[in-house]
């Protein structure tokens, strides 16, 4: 009888939380203030990393900016300073755990404890697996997911100690569905999703209800990283505007949104994959042009990660 009662309670809970989720899909909760938060963004020298940094600065946050490209990162720092914001720029190779830990201690001493961590740095090789050099496979895995372990271990302890913080993982729709020509990229993004989700569950299990998490899974963003990518026009979604993505990430943090997919129809992807056969998903990918979209891939001529 106890198990039946618990099962009924479970069904009621599932129904309630799903209804709340649907309601919040259309009516987001009140935005929280970000004034005084210390935000660290990896890959802040260009693309949405720079735009997110500017957005957070405009809302009263102190920015800590990491990028392997010192010149571009300095430019982001100068932009924020010119706007009257407070920003600290550091050249950092996020794949080097010793460097991550060393800089983390330096930041804690001179800036303060990071309260919002945005793991944004990313790279892509853009080659078929058998044509992809080993070093590029390792590069994608190290930048796109392994580095998250180092930044999380460096900055999450202070969040746990204060039961306050927010962790943002910039993944991709490629963390939900694979595609030819980007095997190493999709693998890294799938891994980033698994890391983010499991860590979220750990926080819930341990009772750290003051630490929020946001998983960001956008379609192609028009930043140059995927230059040459060409899906079927009129069927596949259009490229996302970088400023729009940065604005939506800010809003997701302000409203403690768990998962952010862009554009909105992508929320159906996981549901479709849960019941469609492999043949059906292949047919869908071929129809949208996803199978050949990377055939003309060029990527950034100047690399920023």
Automatic annotation (TrEMBL):
What family is this protein classified in? Belongs to the short-chain dehydrogenases/reductases (SDR) family.
Family annotation (Gene3D superfamilies): NAD(P)-binding Rossmann-like Domain
Transmembrane parts of this sequence: 7-27
Task: Give the originating organism.
Answer: Saccoglossus kowalevskii
Print the keywords alphabetically: Membrane, Oxidoreductase, Transmembrane, Transmembrane helix
Instruction: Determine if Transmembrane is one of this entry's keywords.
Output: yes
Q: Gene encoding it?
A: LOC100371317
The organism that produces this protein has a lineage beginning with: Eukaryota, Metazoa, Hemichordata, Enteropneusta, Harrimaniidae
Output the PROSITE patterns linked to this UniProt entry. Answer: ADH_SHORT (PS00061)
Record-given protein name: Retinol dehydrogenase 10-B-like
Record carries keyword Hydrolase: no
Q: What's a Pfam family in this record?
A: adh_short
